[in-house]
Amino acid sequence: MPDADSRHGPLDPAPDAGWTDARPRMGFFTDTSVCIGCKACEVACKEWNDVPGSGLDLLGMSYDNTGALTANSWRHVAFVEQPRPAAPAAGALPGASAAAGPQFLGMPGARPPGRDTGAQTRSDFRWLMMSDVCKHCTHAACLDVCPTGSLFRTEFGTVVVQEDICNGCGYCISACPYGVIDQRRGDGRAWKCTLCYDRLGAGLTPACAQACPTESIQYGPLDELRERAAHRVATLHERGVPQARLYGHDPTDGVGGDGAFFLLLDEPEVYGLPPDPVVTTRDLPRMWKRAGLAALAMAAAAVAAFVGGSS
Amino acid sequence: MSAPHRPVGDRFRRYRTGRGGGEQLTVPPAEFTSYYGRPVLKPPVWKWDIAAYLFTGGLAAGSSLLAAGGQLTGRPALRRAGRVTSLAAVTASAYFLVNDLGRPARFHHMLRVAKPTSPMSVGTWILTVFGPAAGVAAVAEAAPWLPERGALGVGRRLLPGVGRAAGLVAAATAPALATYTGVLLADTAVPSWHEAYPELPAIFAGSALASGAGVGLLAAPCAQAGPARRMAVAGAALELWGAHRVETRLGLLSEPYRTGAPGRLLRAGRTLTAAGVLGALAGRRSRLLSGLSGAALLAASVATRFGIFHGGVASARDPKYTVVPQRARVDRRAAQG
Ligand code: SF4
Ligand code: SF4
Asked: What is the DSSP secondary structure assignment for residue B36, as one 8-state letter?
């Protein structure tokens, strides 16, 4: 059982969970600046992990017809269509562009926008793509709250559901601050990315990272990935992309940093990510304290009600 | 049990079109960005069973306190009504809890571990102590019906004592049973539940006391109902204080508790609680008025539980409640340097 101090702050999760022979912590670095939205990762994940299909469904909002991470989509490629130029005017602050939000720009014609109608009618827009996945949090709320022990920490520091234990109570689903883990309809159990636990054990690369043609999804020891990511951000800033920023890389954030982190080109909420997720169990001692006080008040009220005379 | 398969897009479209109904917002709509208006969090998969569980669990706790009080102060009507209600309610709550699992047959996996970081695990263990105790106490009420002689005659002589002990065990566990559910809801990422963590246990404790008092007012003759009246006042005070706080203290996150169906439920809960307490105080000599106010208190407890439950669900469905407060936090930190 984790000690009181391991509920937040930086730590190496596998040894903290009691692995004496823990391996180096493995993770994903997803560099969205090179993602081309091909969805090879979504497909590879489904194939390898035998994830059922969700049926043909057109969401009618963008090229993204997956919509979100679900029990049946453990990778989700988001398509953000923004009416704004890829490179901001000189002097614009990173993040200052976040107000407009995504907007559907219509299906493209055979020729580039504005080609036939003249430059004046051209709109400035850009597409952001991002392959989202379970974050394998350092302090994973899903794991903390699971009452069956079905969710566990692996020797690689990742978070996995044991499907033969999960009884479908759904607690993990409400606890995940990223909205990742989900109940499968007709099955009742909770499912999410395992970071290809079976492949890791065999020394292989997870299916999504293996399939990614642009190396947008990179897999490796987390320390190494963090270094690589810092480099990449510096390079992008040099090249005049000041919006580039990392998300989920910081071991001092609300979840103790993520085992899967991202390079984004806009604010996290633009991609459907929470701006400042916090592991819910950080406040748990205070919650139990409040519950204790309420319980005492309740007992005292009951006693007082009976000793107070007979009318 | 589970809904027929629907394409995933349908599930999301529902979130997008379900919002912006006629309700007048008391907080101005917040400017924020999101991914096509989709929820950031997964809304709880818990169905109405869990709201019903919250009510029946509270009722079981409240009525077992009533029963223990009746037992210790010689008010047999309160004792009997409390014990029987407590058993019925805890049986119902166990049913609701198991029924809501995606795999109900695997309920026993809850007993594999005891995890203080999981309020659901803690609650399961509280229930496994409380449930049998409440059951034995209720069964002991049947002692006078047993024959005087033979093996059952032994039971007739032993049961009352066993029942007294069991009743006290149940009453000792009752406050934990009533309040842990506040932590159960608060220990999630659901914005309006999580931020309400200081108040939820108090609301549930108050609501449990008031519903236990309701049982006493319904079942006991006026001569024995005095403690139930006082329990009703104390429970109502706790419940009203807590509900008022969550409806006003949380800024944007109070909004889901004031608008839409949860808002209506909580308002109904408040009105019924007030009516129940007034009736309890005015009806000292009227069996009918006491009974009516008992029913009002029970109904109030149902309304409050469902209101709190659905308020949280609404806050998880709309990305606004996730993004805006977190964004404000980030900006505050950035401003502080
Ligand atoms: S992102 Fe959610 S599901 Fe994944 S480890 Fe973190 S809390 Fe668990
Ligand atoms: S749904 Fe399954 S994995 Fe999630 S908390 Fe419940 S038992 Fe654990």
From this structure: T
